[in-house]
Amino acid sequence: MKKEKSKIYFDYAATTPVDPLVLKSMTPYFSKKFGNTVSFHSFGQEAKQALEESRERVAEVIFAKPEEIIFTSSATESNNLALKGAAFSRKKGKIIISSIEHSCIIETAKWLESQGFEVVKLKVDKYGRLILEDLQRKIDKKTILVSIIHASNEIGTIQPIKKVGQLIKKFNNKNPESKIYFHTDAVQSFGKIPINVNEMNLDLLTASSHKMYGPKGAALLFIRNNTKITPLFHGGGQELGLRPSTVNLPAIVGFGRACLIAEKNSIKENARLIKLRDKLISGILKKIPNSHLNGHLSERLPNNANFRFDFVEGESIVLQLDLMGIAASTGSACSSNKLEPSHVLLATGLKHEQVHGSLRLTLGKWTEEKEVNYLLKVLPEIIKNLRKISGNR
Amino acid sequence: MEPYYSKKLIKRFSNPKNFGLIKDADAVGSAGNPKCGDIMKLYIKTEKKPKKEVIKNVKFHTLGCAAAIATSDVICDLIKGKTLKEAAKVSYKDVMSELDYLPAVKKHCSFLAEQALKDAIKNYSKNEGKKSKKK
Ligand code: FES
For ligand 1, is residue B70 a contact (CB within 6 Å)? Predict the structure, then answer.
């Protein structure tokens, strides 16, 4: 009997499979406990209770109060609500973001710029770490919002959010008449590495369920009490009127359950992932000549490894890996619909041709050591062959 | 839904036959894609036959995406055995039809192959010009 070749997933930063326990927790909310959370009768109240329990669970992950959590449909929506909502409530002013944000922040900021807001981007160093002096230079009384990604979805670099928070707090204390809001896009870090919205002095935070073994279709925006946000939607008043529309309860229940599991396991799981990640990094750098690590060696997400290889193109690598049953991703221009190389890698000072041969491998709960070993076996061959084709042996 | 890349393209990409260097090539053509930064080189070796001169061997080096590699491989097959005049008529459309289809954003990769070929033919006539002057 022919055994089906098993596939290996090294793209957990793109999305994660739903944990079976999460899926189980969701099932009753489709056909049995299907009530609308705003209904007064017992069906509605049952749903409402599940909603509020989920709110408590996700709030706990970041040390927020439940009433400071708004559920949305996606991180893109949360980021739009955070930036546009804060901007609209202030009418005008300056928005500061980093140069390595996710495209939904960059595009939202760009749009706000077209609406008359000023947008400035902060530089990062070669590891993708924010240059704090640049923030210090650019922050001023016109500034209404600072939004910095907590951990890069591409290169995994973790930002000194606490230090940024302190800097903003200091500025706010000195200039009490114009409070600057501080937002972070924590999509890649939420439920994985510790986040404390109070210690980090955050006013707004975005997180998403499907990056942490919850279902797609649920995300959150943390909005600190007394933070003024203008809603994007208007309707029935759900989610404190900040995000009206019938809530996606099954997904939200799943999100809550995923948080519960993450809280219980994250310390042990991180240690395991870091070991695998570092094996992957040292293995690749040792086995493949002219290979380099993108991002920081230690200030990086436990599950992220990102490389670049000279004389090869990233899409070719990803496709070759796919043919071997391995799913990965690249920041190369050839793989993007716009044929533009990753702005994150460019921001770290790499040249276009260096970004060209980039490869992102992201690990997760079901990554096993033998899968890492398999990758370490096949990747050097793939790179070697592609280099023969490119004439750079 | 059609897969992103055609079966034929994947086959070419994963097992190209025509890559490599021709050390004593009669002409080398190159093309680069300013948009995505890819580079392709085509090496041509000709052979004099009674009354005509045909492309005896052709090889490529390509640093680029799967479509760029596959189209490079295809164009080599398409011009092998042809006279330079015949080869000059080969266009990206011929390359594309060999692969069934290309994703819309990848059309330009087949232009790359055509450009490299045109460049090689241009350089060939230049080289020939020099040779005959020497005589
Ligand atoms: S050559 Fe870069 S996209 Fe094909």
Answer: no
